[in-house]
Amino acid sequence: MTFDVTNSGTAPVPLAVELKQINKWFGPVHANKNVNLDVERGQIHAIIGENGAGKSTLVSILYGFHKSDSGSISINGNQVTINEPATALASGIAMVHQHFMLVQNFTVLENVILGNEGSGDIIKASSSARLKLEELINRFGLSIDLDARIEDLPVGIQQRVEILKALYRGARVLILDEPTGVLTPQETDQLFEILRTLKSKSVTILFITHKLKEVMAIADCVSVMRSGEIVAHRDVADTSPPELAELMVGRKVLLRVSRSRANPGKTVLRLTDVSLQQTQGTVGLRDISLTVREGEIVGVAGVSGNGQSELLEIVSGIATPDSGHIEVCGKLVDSLTPTDPRALRKLGVAHVPEDRHRRGLVLPFSAAESSILGYDDLNLSPRSQNGWFLDPSQVAADCASLMDRFDVRPAEPSLHCQNVSGGNQQKLGVAREVSKEPKLLLVGQPTRGVDIGAIEFIHRHLIELRDRGCAVLLVSAELDEIFGLSDRIIVMNAGRITGEVASEDANETDIGLMMAGINTGKDQTEARL
Prior knowledge:
alpha/beta
């Protein structure tokens, strides 16, 4: 039995979680390599690492989604075998997923007791559960209405319901997987207050994130994973974001790429009172007006699902507005004069889509084939001498040059895209669009699923493109990315623009309020020039 010896002179306290020599293979891929991890009771312990570093595999083993090929797990000093989530829950371990596991038309109470109703009187069981839940809500400061329907609750409260559900099932170890990815800054602050309260009640929290600022704000200690191994442990008080970034990547990384002040030129994109009807699964657009000019990056901030995707679809020609009109690279688009992505591409519009698998790449295609997607009919791709057919050898050669320039690994044009990591798939898609020197670049979530080293690389290329006179419309759910790249920031909520500020006047508090649908009255830009 392993113990954490406290400094109070009291009896030693067993470690909340101890992983010893954990190994996991997926075919030839060694996802976890002899991982040792000690987590003290009542601490917030962050685990960070690049994509593919093995952190998700590790916590999936702890929660029973995967079974390790070797190694052992001990909870509170007792060795356990965890083969499935039910076993993890029985051991006091629960996981709060980034995408919540809630029934939308059920109440909070119904969601929490779902699957734990027992075989007796359901009314009596509900009454008993209500008493226990009210005690948990008061004890941990969760502020939840048990009779509210999930579909009527904001995302931040839904996340609290997941935490409440875990506590109701007796969890004393909570695994939080990228918990702030769907939250506004204010909701993130509220979550952190809840986590501090949980910690004060001796609940142990494993915090999985890629946001170094959050590690510094909430965690007591941090473990860094790289290539399936834990390469460092640090007390947060003794480290810094630059050191953690270097430990993750293995080299020094610029966390924010420097950029000069924008020098905007003429308007390249103008939307005037553009609306798009809401459909199932979308919020639509309502009276959107904005401009983007040469030599500037306009960032669109907001929690995902508030109309940003529809905005990109409208401007790229994938969808047609129901009302209002768009002027893009000199072309008028409205409900009576629709267009399509091919026509806009000929005008100089490039598009890095939010979902690289659905719209950015054809996974069974080779990297060379994907490097010319959308441009093969524009005389921008290498052709044979008669001009009718593409020259495969030249396409491959051009792709190799592109992969070298944009650091796409491995730099093998014949490799199928499905066999390339997500981050390198993204770099290939960005390389294809940026290399065409567009007049207008539409870019959605440019660094989603991308390693911290590749983030630096992509950001630098976007700023260089802006400095060459390109107009850039950037959609990102990452506020740090919006602040780091944008010259002007537009905020969306429920399909509307709730505010716009110049980047030098922006702060997280105001942007967060706008993301929640609260107009702060701080429009400080020439939004509709």
